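Researcher: We plan to redesign the surface later, but first we want a full-length starting point. Tokens attached.
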């Protein structure tokens, strides 16, 4: 079966993504209520009964909610988080139920093997939500198939070359394109919020994300990075068309071809079927 990726929701009102092999499935974040999350999952062709694990990026309320955690505990689905997340979500009834059922798994900055044989590499990010991580996920659609690689970076205020190295050679890159800098500065938001979003522990601007995309493309072999999904686009300080233009220009500058998609807040989009890139010799 092919690997599928779906951005179930992306933005300040809730975040969740699905990685589905047609059998076992993983979810990244649980930032919607249970009813809405179920509807998004169904619309993307997923199913709760195939969910084998959830990965948490960080503890802000648009990335984790109590009701879905309680669902996980009832259905005995493992929940992967960083030890540092406990200080914020340890009081949630759902998290406590997961701990009581011994379903909480802790990750650090080392790769680990999750359910269904997925290799997950946590990528430490710079954000004010406490310990915050993106992920590089590698999984095979079947035992004989070539692995598919997915990079997921939703919330970070800055990046370094190590992150570009870690994201190189993915088939799909889901990357935050949060705001246009001038729109952010001209917004009616409180000054402290503008400063926070523009700071190193806030969110990536279109320009910052585009620069990271250029670096990931430069580090990747031909045939890789074929789909780019723009995450966490601000409703007040950005527009999908502006973010899409920035990403496409970055790819043009890199001499790469990829399909670019703007994830949405109120619908599961995009829903993509992925295949491993064929082995192509690197350019001399």
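Model: Full-length starting sequence:
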């Amino acid at each position: 079966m092919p690997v599928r990726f779906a951005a179930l929701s992306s933005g300040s009102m809730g975040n969740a993504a699905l990685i589905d092999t047609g059998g076992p499935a993983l979810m990244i974040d649980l930032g919607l209520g249970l009813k809405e999350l179920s509807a998004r999952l169904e619309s993307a062709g997923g199913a709760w009964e195939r969910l084998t694990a959830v990965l948490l990026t960080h503890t802000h309320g648009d990335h984790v909610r109590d009701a879905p955690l309680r669902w996980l505990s009832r259905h005995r689905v493992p929940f992967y988080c960083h030890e540092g997340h406990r200080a914020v979500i340890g009081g949630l009834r759902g998290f406590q139920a997961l701990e009581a059922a011994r379903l909480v798994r802790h990750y650090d900055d080392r790769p680990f093997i999750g359910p269904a044989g997925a290799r997950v590499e946590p990528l430490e990010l710079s954000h004010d939500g406490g310990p915050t991580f993106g992920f590089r996920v590698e999984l095979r659609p079947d035992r004989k198939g070539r692995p598919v690689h997915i990079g997921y970076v939703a919330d970070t205020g800055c990046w370094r070359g190590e992150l570009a190295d870690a994201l190189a050679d993915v088939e799909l890159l889901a990357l935050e394109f949060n705001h246009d800098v001038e729109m952010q500065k001209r917004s009616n938001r409180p000054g402290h919020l503008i400063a926070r979003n523009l700071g190193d522990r806030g969110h990536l601007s279109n320009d910052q994300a585009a620069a990271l995309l250029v670096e990931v493309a430069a580090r990747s072999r031909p045939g890789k990075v074929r789909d780019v999904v723009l995450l966490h686009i601000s409703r007040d300080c950005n527009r999908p068309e502006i973010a899409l233009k920035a990403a496409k220009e970055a790819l043009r500058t890199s001499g790469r071809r990829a399909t670019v998609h703007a994830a949405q807040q109120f619908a599961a989009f995009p829903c993509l079927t992925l295949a491993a890139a064929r082995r192509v010799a690197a350019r001399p």
